[in-house]
Write a structure and sequence with these properties.
48 residues; mainly alpha; 2 helices
């Protein structure tokens, strides 16, 4: 076993919520949104 370091977005910074919303809207508006959601759904169902 070895340690790893994982960096994640700092949700406390100003503008984080606005940027997250902007990106979510862009993903939802994508022509691939249906395929993307189907992929996530398939992964989610795999664990149940």
């Amino acid at each position: 076993m070895r340690p790893i370091q994982l960096w994640v977005a700092d949700v406390r910074v100003p503008g984080f919520a606005a940027e997250a919303r902007r990106q979510a809207i862009a993903v939802a508006a994508s022509e691939h949104a249906g395929d993307d959601q189907a992929f996530i759904d398939a992964l989610s169902l795999h664990d149940k």
